[in-house]
Automatic annotation (TrEMBL), chain A:
Entry protein name: Protein OSCP1
Naturally occurring in which organism (per UniProt): Sinanodonta woodiana
Ranges where the record places region Disordered: 351-373
InterPro entries: OSCP1
UniProtKB/TrEMBL annotation, chain B:
Domain WD repeat-containing protein 54 beta-propeller intervals: 1-326
The protein's name: WD repeat-containing protein 54 beta-propeller domain-containing protein
Pfam families recorded: WDR54 (PF21031)
WD repeat positions: 245-278
KW Metal-binding (keyword) present: no
Keyword annotations: WD repeat
């Protein structure tokens, strides 16, 4: 297990969260000012200097449960409220998106480029706020200091640790299904052929050497795909070309994210999630302390519902197992368009709606959530 | 050359780790045994030769002192066949555990010390090989190789020696009688020989930064698979390179050598499994024999079932399937 995995996990999941929330806030016509406040508050909390410095200390990964709690709190760092069922959907989408990126990256070092894609996008969101820009720049500095010197082997260990964390999560995401990058069983599609990792040669040739070390013969064999050599290594400069598209915002206005829940796939008992993690607890305390400082804005809060109706939401909440980690076994779909839905997609598709909190007790959701997590 | 047979499913999915499949044929009991790491436990399957009866077992990593169990990430599991005994070795981020071959009883527990001067690194075992009459070698993150002596019976395992030579984490170990070969994260390979009771370094092959994920030996040929998708073949005595193969499009996770025939099996995250033939000589060679794509599976384990390479099995990340191929 690599002890340098947590910052990458946190920043990338946080980046996906910002993408999804931004898309929904805009699609649901939340007033610009409120939408901006939500994103700015979340970025400010996520990249709070003290928290980030704790995050970058060498440490094991949090348990799944502890990490989920961190994001529950992060999502509620601003005036937006999510109930537990809606939060599940958001978290499932974030995790499947990052699992996809880590699984499909060409080589392990690309995880740094994926992280920089997320950071580049976050920087654009907060461009007009100098204080936040300063926080993002600080994270960039820490990322480069920590990860630029690492060897291929060290990155590979980080990737193994991340994929170990995401193992057995097979939630179907409709944007992936539509793009044919995910199968109906929740597994990602692996194409044979295409771009090779930086520094990798096209498979299919054998070079034989004589005793003086000179190339004596060559032979070939079928490579099994149409491969192309990478022309350029992704840049880790502040404003460089990352080359990879993994980690960029896949939810544009024309491709709204919709999520829904169904029942399928395996449920694994996970003893890890039931084990308390003292290190994670200390950091959670710090994070909740940081978030706690800005809890005074209750009156303008609004509730984000990821289901069509309140009834559906309630039903989902009843079905909800006590352990939030079992949410892994649920299906989440993002549909790329509202117009063309195939039968199966529409069957398990719900709608994400954002509405002003109707009852003054809207703020209580957060407390409930914190208690249950 | 090979065709796919009916798969067997482990109790849970396989983790993305190098060399994540180990096989052992128990001739006495007439059983074929397979094991693979699932996060914090090892899934084992035992089957009759015709595959008609299959039994499952899971081995948890237990820490002797701690009340909680089984939460530490396992890095590797491997059956090691010594002349007098077969043991199951499991390395996790907490330490090294040596079990009876069937996982029924733990023989030995070696806690990995945290290195004070390098507290930002987990020190775990990776690379496992039997050596000589009764030695078990296990590589570590610091580059050291621990040498344990395994008694023919009982639990009297002892740490005999620590081999220093590698400066980065060990990836894999392989051995042939009294010769041991070790590979590391920077691509270096070191050759060691057992002389009497002393283990001496006899040569090294410098790397170029790409980890040697897996290494095998046959006659006087070393075959190594790399993170950049290449396979390289070296003379085991001189260290001279005989062949360089652009073999796979992604990281190669596993390599297996059929000791009887010199067939080599490689499996990669590009979802391809390939079989090669080694040719011994002053500059050893290698020929392509067979390839197949296991659709949408990032392969992490590959092992010949028998010494002649008549059948092999592969495993892939996030899937419980043990996929078999046999010669047609």
């Amino acid at each position: 297990m690599s002890l340098k995995t947590l910052p990458l996990l946190f920043i990338n999941l946080g980046g996906e969260m910002v993408y999804i929330l931004d898309q929904r806030l805009r699609a649901q016509n939340i007033p610009d000012e409120k939408a901006k406040k939500v994103l700015h508050d979340i970025v400010a909390t996520m990249f709070h200097q003290k928290f980030v410095e704790e995050l970058f200390k060498s440490q094991p990964l949090y348990s799944k449960k502890a990490l989920r709690t961190v994001f529950d709190r992060l999502a509620h760092a601003s005036i937006m409220r999510l109930n537990a069922a809606s939060m599940d959907k958001l978290y499932d989408l974030m995790t499947m998106a990052f699992k996809y990126q880590v699984s499909l990256c060409l080589r392990s070092k690309d995880i740094l480029l994926i992280t920089l894609n997320h950071l580049d996008a976050i920087r654009k969101f907060i461009e007009d706020v100098p204080n936040l820009k300063h926080l993002v720049d600080h994270v960039f500095k820490l990322l480069i200091e920590t990860y630029a010197p690492l060897s291929n082997g060290a990155f590979h260990l980080i990737r193994q640790t991340l994929l170990n964390f995401f193992q057995d999560m097979h939630i179907r995401v409709s944007i992936f299904l539509k793009d044919k990058v995910q199968n109906n069983n929740g597994r990602f599609v692996l194409t044979t052929g295409g771009l090779l990792p930086w520094g990798c040669q096209v498979p299919g040739s054998i070079r034989l050497f004589d005793e003086s070390g000179k190339e004596a013969k060559t032979a070939s064999f079928p490579s099994g795909g149409n491969y192309t050599i990478a022309q350029k290594e992704g840049s880790i400069e502040m404003k460089g070309d990352r080359v990879t598209n993994l980690g960029k915002n896949m939810y544009s206005i024309s491709r709204p994210v919709e999520t829904s829940r169904g029942r399928t796939t395996t449920t694994m008992s996970d003893i890890e999630s039931s084990t308390p993690d003292p290190l994670a607890r200390a950091q959670l305390d710090l994070l909740s302390h940081l978030i706690g400082n800005k809890m005074e804005t209750k009156k303008m809060s609004f509730r984000l519902n990821l289901f069509k109706t309140d009834e559906e939401e309630e039903k989902a909440a009843v079905m909800q197992p006590i352990d939030p980690m079992v949410a892994e076994s649920q299906v989440v779909k993002i549909d790329a368009t509202k117009k063309k839905k195939n039968e199966e997609l529409s069957r398990i598709m719900g709608e994400l709606t954002v509405e002003e909190s109707r009852s003054p007790s809207g703020g209580d959701d957060l407390l409930e959530l914190m208690d249950s997590a | 050359m090979y065709r796919r047979d009916k798969p067997i499913a482990f109790k849970s999915s396989v983790s993305l780790l190098a060399n994540n499949l180990t096989c052992y044929i128990n001739i006495e009991k007439g059983s074929l045994n397979y094991a693979s790491v699932h996060r914090y436990l090892v899934n084992m399957v035992s089957s009759t030769p015709d595959g008609s009866q299959v039994t499952h077992k899971q081995v948890m990593c237990k820490e002797p002192s701690a009340a909680q169990q089984g939460t530490s990430m396992i890095i590797q599991a491997k059956w090691v066949t010594l002349p007098a005994r077969v043991v199951l070795v499991i390395t996790s981020i907490k330490g090294i555990q040596i079990f009876e071959y069937d996982g029924s009883a733990i023989m030995y527990w070696h806690a990995m010390r945290d290195h004070a001067e390098n507290a930002d690194q987990c020190n775990f075992g990776r690379g496992i090989a039997g050596f000589g009459e009764n030695l078990l070698c296990i590589g570590s993150q610091t580059g050291e190789i621990m040498v344990f002596s395994i008694p023919p019976k009982g639990n009297n395992v002892a740490l005999k020696d620590t081999l220093k030579g590698h400066k980065s984490a060990i990836c894999d170990l392989t051995s042939d009688k009294n010769n041991l070969y070790s590979s590391d994260d920077e691509g270096n390979i070191i050759m060691w020989t057992l002389q009497g009771s002393q283990i001496q370094q006899t040569g090294n092959i410098p790397g170029s930064g790409d980890p040697v994920s897996s290494i095998g030996v046959w006659k006087s040929v070393i075959v190594a698979s790399y993170g950049n998708g290449q396979i390289k073949v070296y003379n085991a005595k001189t260290g001279k390179v005989g062949a360089v193969v652009n073999a796979h499009a992604r990281w190669i996770n596993a390599l297996s050598v059929a000791k009887g025939t010199g067939l080599v099996l490689t499996a990669s995250e590009d979802s391809f499994v390939r079989v090669w033939q080694l040719i011994d000589g002053p500059t050893p060679e290698l020929e392509f024999k067979f390839a197949d794509c296991v659709t949408d599976l990032q392969l992490v384990g590959a092992q010949f079932v028998d010494d002649n390479g008549k059948a092999f099995a592969v495993t892939g990340y996030d899937s419980p399937d043990l996929i078999f191929f046999s010669q047609s």
